[in-house]
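Take a record.
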Amino acid sequence: MLTIYDIAKKAGVSAATVSKVLNGRSDVGKSTIETVKRIIEESGYQPNSIARGLATKKSKTVGVFFQDHLNTGFRHHFLQDILASFKDVIGESGYDLMFFANNHPDNQAETFEARAKNRNVDGLFLLGVPRNDPNLKGIVQSRIPCMSIDLDLKGPNANYLCSDNIGGAKMAIDYLVKMGHSKIAFISDVYVTKPGLDRLIGFKEAMAYHELPIMEEWILPGDFSEKGGYLSVKQLIESGCLPTAVFCAGDMMAIGAMEAMREKGLKIGEDISLIGFDDITLLKYITPKLTTIRQRKEEMGQLAAKELLRLMNVPHYSSSPFTIETELVIRDTVTRIIN
């Protein structure tokens, strides 16, 4: 196998000079650069990425900690869309992704920081990591550039972005009120994630703005899963005290809510109106078509990648959190109430 030393011998230079040429260093003469590049092209030499990383102290690799409380992994309908657009931007910039396994035996013994340093990644991307994870403090204090989604991680080399969850929740309630609804239930987030908490805040603020009563028994805990939405709405229906509309903090819970309504013989959008949050791709297969609040997932993934690239490559870069606007998508599950 051809090595950097073979190239150096043919070019009549040192291996260190060949390494400088490979890494685009400017402190090499023009004629030497041309000679080395010609020999590399003629020989078909492929530089070893590990060796290059040792020379430059950069691996051209981004580590990804991809978690969620339901352990759905890459099947997570919201996170997978963000990750796809993140990967496209990172790849175009010459980086590969390395995924850290959630169930690795070293998870309990080693911190995020230690595992990242062992793999020599240039930066980290965090999705779905809970706010109370003990690893987060070390990441913020480390020198590893880090970008997160829906996790308020902030430090000298760390930044985050999220959707306007409070504004999106207000938008949902404003629309329901516009359609004549005043008795509104909310399927919340039992895990108290940042998105779940912000959507609850938005719900309460919008209800107060419209001077509508907030019924504590109509704020039910969910876990962003289909089953969570099903169980919450089943409990709501069986209580015998029905609202005219239900706002779910996530689309998967809204899908579960639909199933609970069908089981009880209720017509979705007629007997009870329903609105979700996320606008996941799966909704195209769901009937009736769900009215929801859309998160701009592709934009979120692209912006997260661009921001991480800045954190990794721009010295003394000063970053601030990003908030991405949401939008109301009107479909078939909200009906106007005629008073």
Remarks:
- The chain has three domains: 4-56, 61-162+297-324, 165-295.
